[in-house]
Amino acid sequence: MTDPPFTAALDALNALACGLFLLAAFAIVATRQTRGCLLLFIGQSLLLAASAFVLGVKYQSLHLVAVGAVNLVSKPIVIPWILRRTLSAEVYARREIDQVLNIPISLLIALILAVLAYFLTLPMLSAVAPQFRSANVPIGFAGLLLGAYTLTVRREAVPMLIGILAMENGAFFAGIALSRDLPFIVELAIASDGLVLVFVTGVLVRAIQRHIGSTRVGELVSLREESPAPGAGAEETP
Amino acid sequence: MTLPLLLLLPLIAAGMCGLPRVRALAPAVTVASCTAVLVLASETALHVVAAAAPVTFRGWLAVDGLGALIVWLVSLVGTTAAVYSWGYMRRTGSHHLARLRLYYANYNLFVFAMLAIPMVVEPTLVWIFVELTTLTSALLVSFENTQAALEAAWKYVALSLMGAAIALLGFLVLFAALQAAGGEPYTWEGLTRAAPRMPPVLLKTAFALILAGLGTKVGLVPLHTWLPDAHSQAPSPVCALLSGIETTSVLYVILRLLPVLDASSFSGVRDGVVIFGLISVGVAAFLLLQVRDYKRLFAFSTVEHMGIILVAAGLAGEAAHYGAMYQILSHTVTKSFCFFAAGAAVLTVTTRDIQAVRGLLRISPATAASLLLGGLAIAGAPPLSVFVSEFLILKAGLAEGRYVVVGLLTLFIAIAFFGVLLHINRMVFGRPAEAAPSVEAQSPAGAPAHSAVGAGGLPGTCSVILLLGGALVLLLGVCLPGPLHELLRLAAHELQR
């Protein structure tokens, strides 16, 4: 489709998906409910799929459409299903989930990370061919950093897991723009790997819940060198 | 055809551990499959050495010198740890058949994932198998289901998966760089060929992301915090796999990228790698001094050794790379033996607290002797292989005129040597505590609840593996068989180009 208005419309759609994707990443940092966290992740995955579809149509890449379809099935449908099967309702029932920092400060840090992602990717974008230049790249990097940040500040297991999944979403979001001709079997393998990830983590969280009685994994700090020497760095978080 | 068979065997074994009829035989199935893998891997390695060319399978799998070394070491530790597990898990683990079955199924899948890393040629698929090593070993780390084990497993999973996500983006950027260069397939070979034409900024970003991401999994220093936990809380045979070879097989992926970066148009990467490695060695050496749990002691020593390998790989010459490969070999053989010895100590004294163990030599001479040998060997005492490899690396560094690097490395190695032997010495010699030492062991390690220990001595398979492993550790120091030397040389050759 070299029809200019059509292309412009697709670009606008993709820009919308990008903006909403970033917004979802911020919301995952800030939300106060486990359920909300999961719903936001589902929304973010839908936006990832949408962006893949739009780019697929724009560049007439069947491969990207397939990637979008895989994401559409695996993340919004299968992953929540696995989580629900492996974890008890109690994990979801806990309404308030707090974090190490308060939410305004968290959002400020998240904003700094997003700006950082933009400046980190600026030189990269100028190095690639024009058809790979897209807002997806900085926003994908931002999604990765915000997911990592979520993982760091959350203390509850399920939101931490969602942080990991959001990081992968971010990596993919940049990936659909940057490396869109990756063999399809690889994409499929990565998607199924995500399912294994959720299953194994779910089983682990269930074991934690059963044997420790809580899923506040952020408060498990029994393992460390006990000497209070200043060099005791084994417990510092990265 | 041996390559797909190497991957199929552990998968079949894992499947068989799940079958209802085979359940009771799960340990035997695992040992059989691992032994077969070891035989096949040795054959493949000999083949690579004889032909001095990679063995390939349809463009998807390929094993060159470096790959063959890692495959062989994975299968070696996989086999010894499987035999060791047989007696060890029966003694410590639950007598629940279902739990044991889960253990062996995961064990085989874990071995499968580690075998696949050095064989697969497509980097994103390699990433998937790195991720699978985490996922298949997570439930092995948490196997004992104590609070400490679950905590360790969670930290392991959370940090490793975080690293993996970062590395995934790195591999995608790397693919973009390859596309910008045009025309080469996405394999390690293709990357090296395309490297001169890649936009440097993409390559640099990709390498930074991959180093940070996979460095987490290797346990390089700012992101090593999970490693001593996971590598001390898992059952000892699993520790042998995790510490002995899993870290190395992930480090392999980083090593693969070094020649790519050399071929590209920007420099200074090797120096960065050396500095990164030195930081790991230094920090780990100091952390070694203040451990209270002897399994954590060996875990920190793994961080140290990963740093040493990275430093050696970062140096330029062939001699240093040969040293790096030698270090991989000696570390894997020695460290797995250390954890076997540590497992024997856990069985003998039921605690992991160094303070609570005194005069092990009188309680159980065999355990004490292997712990002492393991400690001496891993610290790098002269006739043994870690000493030889470290000596080769230092010598190569001097020959290149990197005096500061060599000086710091020597200092850190000396500190670590002192640290390891300080703790081991206290445990082995000295006067045994009165009666049961486990009484005062409300230690950070938390005394595991094994009951029937001490009484019957070590399980048979554990003794066999300790004997064999000890013999291997001693022999490797004295002589390196010709084919192995040739394999190391070929592997070192893969690090440059």
Structural class assignment of chain B: mainly alpha
- What class do helices, strands and sheet pairing of chain A give? mainly alpha
Give the beta-strand count of chain A.
Answer: 0
Helix content of chain B: over 70%
Query: How would you classify the quaternary structure?
Result: heterodimer
Strand order of the largest sheet of chain B: 1-2
Major sheet details of chain B:
2 strands, antiparallel
Give the N-terminus to C-terminus distance of chain B in angstroms. Answer: 28 Å
What order do the SSEs of chain B take from the amino end to the carboxyl end, as H and E?
Answer: HHEEHHHHHHHHHHHHHHHHH
* β-sheet strand percentage of chain A: under 5%
Binned, the helix content of chain A reads over 70%
Number of helices of chain A: 8
The greatest inter-chain interface is formed by: A-B, 62 and 59 residues
Q: Output mean pLDDT of chain A.
A: 83
Structural overview:
The complex is a heterodimer of chains A (238) and B (497). Chain A has 238 residues and is mostly helical. Chain A has helices at residues 4-30, 34-58, 62-86, 89-93, 103-127, 136-153, 157-178, 184-212. In chain A, helix 2 runs antiparallel to helix 3 (62-86), helix 2 (34-58) packs parallel to helix 7 and helix 3 (62-86) packs parallel to helix 8 (184-212). The longest helix of chain A is centred in the last third of the chain and has 29 residues, at 184-212. Chain B has 497 residues and is mainly α. Chain B has one domain (2-494). Chain B is built from 19 helices and two strands. Chain B has helices at residues 2-18, 26-51, 65-92, 97-119, 123-141, 147-181, 188-194, 200-218, 227-233, 236-263, 269-289, 294-314, 318-349, 360-363, 365-379, 385-399, 403-428, 460-478, 482-494; strands spanning 55-57, 61-63. Chain B is globular, with a radius of gyration of 21 Å. Chains A and B meet through helix 5, helix 6, helix 7 and helix 8 of A and helix 5, helix 6, helix 8, helix 9 and helix 11 of B.
